[in-house]
Amino acid sequence: MGDLSRIRFGGFYRRPDARPEQDPAPDAEAEFEFEDAPARPARERSIRAQWLTQTVSVVVLILLISVTVFCFAMSSLLLSSMRSNLTARTGAAVSFFNKYANASDSELYSGAKAYIEGYEDRDIVELQFLDNSGRVVYSTSGFAAGLSVDTEDLTSAMKSVSSASWCGRDPGSGENILAVSAPIVYPSGEIVAFVRCVSSLANLRHRVLTYAAVSLLVALFVLAVVVLSNSYFLRSILVPLEQINDTAMQIARGRYGVHIAPLYANEIGDLCETINHMSDAISRAEQTKNDFISSVSHELRTPLTAIGGWSETLLSGGADDRAEVERGLTIIRDEAGRLSRMVEELLDFSRMEQGQLKINMERADIMPDLEDVVFMYMDTLQKEGIALEFHEDEDLPEIVCDRARLRQVFLNILDNARKHGGDGKRILVTARLTVSTIDIAFRDFGQGIPPEELPHVRERFYKGSSRARGSGIGLAVADEIVRLHGGRLDIDSAVGEGTTVTVSLPVAQ
Asked: For residue 16, what pLDDT is reported?
């Protein structure tokens, strides 16, 4: 046997009224099963793995998409802003050169040289002045003078006679640039020259990388917050689950009545309350089962003892006295009948628990069967000094029923009235017709049932404070049979005044 002290009790407590002697020692097979079942860590890892794949991976994907979209948007915005800036600069230069529209070419070129040499933003933008064939005449950098330009911005400006832009790798330097070209057009419509602004994209790339780095840091911060908050949330679930699992293992080992401390005011708290209720219910059921076994054992022992004793008496020579023989055989017959009824009652209860209690329905008058039961019991009750009265309405209609099963119900109820209410020395049976049912009432005038026990008298194995013999399942079987007939079994009782059990059966339509 394993050492039960190794089971941790953290997070739950034992119900004060739980009785240790109720806890059966677990058998070797059950203990081996639980010793080999510490699968809780693997189960926790499984939950964490599911959380990582289903939550964190989704968050990471969303953040990556957000960072990518943000960087792309910022790159497009910066490029558009740079293009607008270069377009404005070329437009300003073209406006300056338009004042030479009526001047000679030499004056235009002199003005262009002076404009290029005096350009203030040469450190930011390279400004170029090109002739109408696309050859650089003047440049703020001085390195491009004399070179021919055939990039898309210039060719587009020649064709459309308007400004055009181009983004790509510079054929001369191999550097990524943004270029905007605009034609200088005389009033006659002739293109006499071009103004071209060129800017490196290295600064834009640096700014985009900076934005990307900042957005990644923000994304990592958000991811860290999500991981930490969800880790706390996951822990708030796993810790209670561990406590619940420990308590469930205790209950499975037979330590009924163990409770989980009510620490959680949420759905987990509701689950804990449900498990606590289940633990109490199992504890009550275990106690009821033990009481039932004890009661049935006593019930079986009594008739068996009587049968065995009288059998030995008759076999040992008691057969000479006829009166003694008849008395012994009568006791053997009665006790054997009691054993037979008890076994049949247990079999019916077993069928009822499995949902296999069958009834054979037919349209019949149930009154003859009720009268047979009453008059059959009348002699027995008279011998015990109990008066049995029977009253019925005339012309009671037929019902759809299983006659044998209803006889069993009537016998059980009358037997209960004799055992538990016989001290009142009177039992009254009545059959009355209501609007849609036949109500058959069995009333005794005994001590009655205490109010706290009344809601439980139809529960299986329940005997309450009664000291009368019985298995405690007869009324439960009777209640199930009446229910299968579509009827109702009601119990009314008052302490000191007696108990009334009413069977209501629907009239046949």
From this structure: 41
- Average pLDDT, integer, range 300-307: 78
Q: Which two tokens stand for residue 122?
A: 């040469």
**What is the SS3 string spanning 159-190?**
HHCCCEEEEEECCCCCCEEEEEEEEEECCCCC
CA distances in angstroms from 165 to 88, 162, 181, 406, 483, listed in the order given: 12, 10, 6, 102, 91
| Euclidean distance between CA atoms 3 and 18, whole angstroms | 21
pTM of the model: 0.46
Asked whether residue 267 carries a pLDDT value surpassing 90, the answer given is: no
d(CA 380, CA 56): 79
Closest C-alpha to 498, from 338, 382, 379, 386: 386
DSSP three-state, residue 84:
helix
Using one digit for the tens of pLDDT, what is the confidence trace for 179-201?
999 998 887 778 889 999 999 88
Residue 410 near residue 487 (C-beta atoms within 8 A): no
Distance CA 197, CA 116 (A): 11
| CA distance from start to end of the chain | 63
Q: Tokens representing 18? A: 């739980």
Distance CA 329, CA 314 (A): 9
User: What tokens were used for 429?
Assistant: 């049976």
Q: Of the candidates 196, 242, 223, 177, which has an alpha carbon nearest to the alpha carbon of residue 97?
A: 196
CA separation for the pair 278, 53 (Å, rounded): 35
Phi first, then psi, for residue 473 (nearest 5°) are -120, -5
Contact 204, 221 (CB under 8 A): no
Q: For 220-252, write each residue's pLDDT tens digit.
A: 999 888 888 877 777 777 777 777 778 788 777
Least confident interval from 89-98, 228-237, 420-429, 456-465: 456-465
Question: Is pLDDT at 4 greater than 50 in this prediction?
Answer: no
